[in-house]
Amino acid sequence: MRAEAPYTPPMMHVADRLLSAVQRCGAPLCVGLDPVVGKLPAALQTLGATKPASAIESFSLAVLAACVRVAPVVKIQSACYERYGVDGMKALAATLESAREHGYEVILDAKRGDIGISAEHYAAAAFEAARADWVTVNAYLGADGLAPFVKHDHGAFALVRTSNPGGDALQSLRLSDGRSVAEAVADLVADAGKAALGGAGYSSLGAVVGATKPADAARLRGRMPHTLFLVPGYGAQGGGIADIKPCFNADGRGAIITASRSIIYAFTNDDDDWAGSIRRAAETTHHELAEGLRA
Amino acid sequence: MRAEAPYTPPMMHVADRLLSAVQRCGAPLCVGLDPVVGKLPAALQTLGATKPASAIESFSLAVLAACVRVAPVVKIQSACYERYGVDGMKALAATLESAREHGYEVILDAKRGDIGISAEHYAAAAFEAARADWVTVNAYLGADGLAPFVKHDHGAFALVRTSNPGGDALQSLRLSDGRSVAEAVADLVADAGKAALGGAGYSSLGAVVGATKPADAARLRGRMPHTLFLVPGYGAQGGGIADIKPCFNADGRGAIITASRSIIYAFTNDDDDWAGSIRRAAETTHHELAEGLRA
Predict the structure, then answer these.
(1) Who among B36, B129, B175 is closest to A83 (CB)?
(2) Which of A78, A159, B66, B257 has its CA 20 to 30 A from that of A111?
């Protein structure tokens, strides 16, 4: 008898997979996992003092378990782990593995950006070593620096408009053709992503667009109709429902909203049920988004 | 008898330290360490097939030993190691340690860039975990994203003008005030670096300026008189002595020239003395720079 190759279903396009996860969950909520030792629950502070990487790993796994089925997507801030060197990278690997096992769509927030072969190495780091679904990238080096990240089964979110005060210094500058620098980056991203559209019409090259600049967001949405927006700055950074609405297309799709501090630090110092508090904060945000975006 | 605190000499400003290392060595040569398994010497290929991170570590240590006292500075491409996950980070840590022990000024080429506390985490990753002297960063997020990297005893090189073909798409765009986007980034970098000048008049915030655009380099040199230039693209990427001259100030200082592939892969397939070939290529480049820049 001839051995047959095991059946492998074809891999779904990464943008279709993300949208389908959002639809299943009922809200486009992404939990931003930015663990910092000084902000951990009291129960983890002792461990944090001697083994910081172990403490943020324990906390990360607890947050992932707490938010299951309330947030379809998790964005993991690489810097928080990298600062602890090899131990931190082990903690990051364990966090990524747990996120995959829970079924999250996983965004590695690493803001990588380089040229040629170095960009290919970073893509291998994100998708082969870390096995993330998405990675955040910087577009300053142009389209050849973006190409290695943009495929069928994994993708990237390129920084277009950031939510920090200093972001204006460069991103708001006006070009001689009337566009802002951020709008020029948006056009570059829209163009570079054209070749990688999924079945729902969205590209595997997305854009990071801060929630604190709603007027900018509306203009950027118009320039990038086929681009998924990853929107940080909801909640703690000051962005509300009205601020994020312009990030969506008319069909109610096209944006993923990240809340970080308002969820992962939603406990008080003496909170014995800190994981429960995180869960409830995620549920509240899920409800806010589901209701607010329907209205 | 009262125990006295051991004497610690005050830490030298990072830009002064770099210039002093260049002066001692006689040429502003930086070896770019971008190890790729497929390009390793035949002797390391077997190891590379099963343990790629170990193979690039062995190669890295050999390159560092080969170039001692010919190159005062080494630029280590983080992506080449990151692609192998935790094993790669161990190889990177060993490479960084060896570079420090040999007395190189160490640039971690990681092109990091983020906002607020995340930028602080990346600075901790580069200077506390990796213990590099310098790290390359991306300025798209503005001055608040650069500040954590710019100190007295360590510094950063911000991407201003890259040597890749796609870099023009954004960096050459013309603003309504007549500047190019790269020139606007240069002004931002010059301004953000002002507060961190060393004794020789150079800032601990430097700039990456590709060697393949000499006309741009001359204009950027004028806009950033107190900024050290890190210049990739010499040798294999096509830049020659005439291309890099505009990167220096009139006093003959102010730029570090990186050669990567033309040095670290300067051996043939059946080369038994591949480390010797690397050494000789570094010596040739040192001589070219020392002679060419004097003329």
Answers:
(1) B129
(2) B257
- What is chain A's length? 295
pLDDT digits 0-9 by tens, B34-53: 999 999 999 999 999 999 99
Dmax over CA atoms of chain B, in Å, equals 71
Chain A residues with CB under 8 Å of B36 CB are: 117
Q: Which residues of B carry out catalysis?
A: 111
Element (H, E) at A50: helix A42-50
Contacting residues for B190 by C-beta, under 8 A, at least 6 apart: B223, B224, B225, B226, B227
pLDDT tens string A200-245: 999 999 999 998 778 889 999 999 999 999 999 888 767 789 999 9
Alpha helices, DSSP H, located in chain B: 14-25, 42-50, 52-66, 78-82, 85-102, 116-124, 143-146, 168-171, 181-193, 214-223, 241-244, 261-264, 274-294
Chain A interface disruption, residue of B164, B177, B212, B261, most A CBs within 10 A: B164
The amino acid present at B227, given as its one-letter code, is T
> For residue A185, is pLDDT > 70?
yes
Whole-number Å distance between alpha carbons of B114 and A112 = 10
Give the CATH architecture of domain A14-294.
Alpha-Beta Barrel (3.20)
Task: Please identify which of the residues A39, A51, A90, A111 carries the catalytic annotation.
Answer: A111
A47 phi, psi to nearest 5 deg: -60, -40
Q: Do B86 and A90 touch (CB under 8 A)?
A: yes
d(CA B196, CA B289): 28
Nearest CB to B142 within list A112, A128, A166:
A166
Task: Parse chain A into domains and list their residue ranges.
Answer: 14-294
Q: What is the mean pLDDT of residues B61-72?
A: 98
Taking CB atoms and an 8 Å limit, are B115 and A143 in contact across chains? no
To the nearest whole angstrom, how far is the Cα of B148 from the nearest Cα of chain A? 13
Whole-number percent of chain A with pLDDT over 70: 98
Residue B70 CA: distances (Å) to CA of A131, A181, B20, B279: 40, 42, 14, 8
The C-alpha torsion from B135 through B278 and B36 to B97, rounded to 10°, is: -40
ipTM, 2 decimals? Answer: 0.94
Catalytic, A51? Answer no
Distance CA A10, CA B224 (A): 53
Which of A253, A250, A260, A191 is CA-nearest to residue A228? A253
Between chains, do B138 and A85 touch, taking CB under 8 Å as contact? no
Q: Work out how many CB contacts closer than 8 A connect A with B.
A: 183
R_g (Cα) of chain B, nearest Å: 19
- pLDDT of A43-64, one tens digit each? 999 999 999 999 999 999 999 9
Contacts of A160 (CB under 8 A, 6+ apart): A139, A182, A185, A186, A189, A207, A208, A209, A220, A224
What average pLDDT does range B269-289 have in this prediction? 95
